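Fold in tokens:
===
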Amino acid sequence: METTKIQDPKAARTDHHYRLRPLQGKSTISVIYSPDEFHRVLMQECQRSDRYSLRFSLAVFEVGTQDESSVLIRRLVRTIHHRFRNTDEIGWYRKGQIGVILPFTPSEGAWKLAEYVSGIVSSVTSPPAFAIYSYPSK
């Protein structure tokens, strides 16, 4: 199980939009941050981690598309939301990648989430590849 340090929060992109946007399609319950919004939240989590000496993990799923009507993305987001805690955040990490910020979670907990999500998604479509990052790195 290998983890990688998340980029320095000072180098992360920021944005001043605080809106969540609903995932297109039938469900208006599921929401996902835009890339700029997600990177703002990620930067805030890095700063909180530094300030209070806390650990968090980031799970990044390779979905290959940003078409929010795709079966893979809809099932992935729905599955993550079923396992969601109030402190977790989900958003577009990069083009074709969905990220999940898991505060107060070691990399082992993030692996469990990613494997669970992959197992559920595999019943509908090919499960996405994923990577787990930990901050601060060990």
Observations:
- The longest strand covers residues 56-62.
